Amino acid sequence: MRICVPRESAPGEHRVALTPEAVTKLGAAGFEIVVERGAGVAAGFTDAAYAAAGAEPGETGATPTCDGVARVARPSPAEVAALQRGTVLVGFLQPLEDPEGIARLRERGVVAFAMESIPRTTRAQTMDALSSQATIAGYKAVLLAADRSPKLFPMLMTAAGTIAPARVLVLGAGVAGLQAIATARRLGAVVSAFDVRPAVAEQVASLGATFLDLGVRGEETEGGYALELTAEQQREQQNALAARIPDFDVVVTTAAVPGRPAPRLIPASSVEAMQPGSVIVDLAAETGGNCELTEPGREIDHGGITIVGLTNVASLMPADASRLYARNVSALLEHLAPGGTLELDFTDEITDGACVTRPAEEVAA
Ligand code: NAD
Fold first, then answer.
1. How far does residue 343's CA lie from ligand 1's centre (Å)?
2. pTM of the predicted model, to two decimals?
3. Among residues 113, 121, 132, 262, which is most buried (max CB within 10 A)?
4. Other CB atoms within 10 Å distance of the CB of residue 346
């Protein structure tokens, strides 16, 4: 199977779908890899490194000569139009957020696999790109907060006296939230966290953080995701949080419900009750934000409170984000094409679960 890795075209996307390390590994597994010139430059991987790893240099828009395309972000309409019928496409295709994009791929006859739709089972763990990228985002969110905060994170005892540690609150303790807790702890902050899934309390405690009891308990799906709270529960949560938020110097929010707008946890009034210099980093900005004042893609100052609403935070650490993503993509490609030969088995739960469009003849088969 010949796989093309295009240079990402989405604004602010610095990651690349395959690294030189992954090219070498896939080459040994029977794949031929074409890497568009400059595809890895923003992540620190040169064309020379790809060539040394055995990749063929590809020109812009060389995808028609390939059986498969591995990318990070979903393709633009023009990029979809350049794909041949039957091409296998792998990437973050946003099947829940972008039904139009999925319809475009279907019309084009692309066999598309969304990294978001890979079932989160033990067997598919090596392919779990949502987790690998959330880990990076959780880490970076805390670094952004520490950088924007006028306070030190650790407690310092110096000849000039003692500095109290920063107090950090993490809302949503899934993959990104747990990494945020661990990172804030490593920097010496005193950390509290909350999640609607009560099962998380133990994980929070094991990282040395305190689980905030807000008196709100949500339901959990079989896949381990939270279900959306009722309007009444949401109000209770906002009220309980409003009383606590002014105690914190930094709030990192990561709360999400798949396919739904981000739950609103922090109303403007709670932001306004925080101490000047406090920082909110809202990792849910992409789906609307956990804070009412978040402006997706921007960092703002609201009366002395910094609200960081940057989207695609994993892309701010493109080298390691790409390394992990490339391993996820490679694992999926090797699953779809053992030994480099495409063998789509739609009775397999990973292949079937991740596939978001397939031509009619594949469905019939
Ligand atoms: P996510 O990004 O969808 O959500 C992030 C967190 O927000 C979740 O922990 C969720 O409970 C929480 N949340 C939702 N509404 C909230 C609210 N109103 N207030 C506070 N928190 C709220 O989830 P994720 O981090 O991608 O994954 C969640 C869980 O999925 C994991 O913790 C795990 O149980 C499961 N998972 C399993 C595997 C696996 O088995 N291979 C891999 C990854 C994740």
1. 32
2. 0.95
3. 113
4. 13
